[in-house]
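Service request form, structural biology core

Requester: graduate student, group of Dr. S.
Request type: structure prediction, single chain
Budget code: on file
Notes: please return the result as structure tokens.

Sequence provided:
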Amino acid sequence: MPSTSRPLRKLGFLTIGLFDADDPGRGHETTLEIIELGERLGFDSAWVRHRHLQYGISSPVAVLAAASQRTRRIELGTAVIPLGWENPLRLAEDLATVDILAGGRLNPGVSVGPPMHYEQVKEALYPDTSEAEDFGYERVRRLLDLVRGKPATDFSGVEGFEVFSDRVQPHSPGLGRRLWYGGGSPGSARWAGEHGMNFLTSSVVKAEGPDDTRDFAEIQLSHVQAFRAAHPDGEAARVSQGLVVIPTDSASPEQRARYEEFAAKRLPRTASPQGPARLLFAPDLVGTSDEIAERLHAHAAFREIDEVAFALPFTFGHEDYVQILTDMATKLGPALGWRPGAGA
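Core staff response, request fulfilled:
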């Protein structure tokens, strides 16, 4: 098996946190239980997705606040918060508060762009400013400045019995270095690098045009390279890869069959770029840990990173996630050269 140029240093996972509309508490509780399991298994990080007006976590910062009080070591991330739904100043306050509660373990990932189904939701979200809202990189820059301690106001001092600060409080000094940008294009990769962020890659990238015949791994590799070329830390800049990975070492025959059927149904979308945005999807990796490790070692982008946040499939059950995470930590991670505590 060929070796990787960057030994795997940090092993993480990503979950969407689905719930039943008639019993949302149970779904949120199982998400917290999965994060607790991840810590017991030695994972370096646990990440949650963000879903608005769906039956998945709509408030990841609140969920991670709860997780921060039930864990002690594992890093907690968002992948990703779509900033089109957020006020950067208020989000900066929430992120700093949770980071303080977590003892400096929060890794907020964000992205830009208009909210999904914006025409249908804009009257509820921005009834007076829907046509004036800026959903570009400026929204990220505002969040970065506020989290990193730049003034939010020209007023500070004592007024009566109250003391006012000119910057977001609480201020968490290390949080500004743990902000991630989730991107799938060369432009977003360069922007993240130029602004000193970390870079989250996933199982989706954008093909650059009709003549772009590169495969998924080649495109993703070009994004990693563009990011590091623009980042002040160069080759040391942090990149995390988030492919869908399903080890089957301890799976039952029924689970293996179901996992393989899941991946097979999604495989056709990986053959060519999809839709007007020309999105290219990575195949889901299903098999034994040794089989998956061999495929990852052959993956051009994986060879250039030393952190992963493997995505759990959306629609599997709690018992499936327990099996998959256990195999990731005890079989797949070691097959990739990872060991618990190595990324500390």
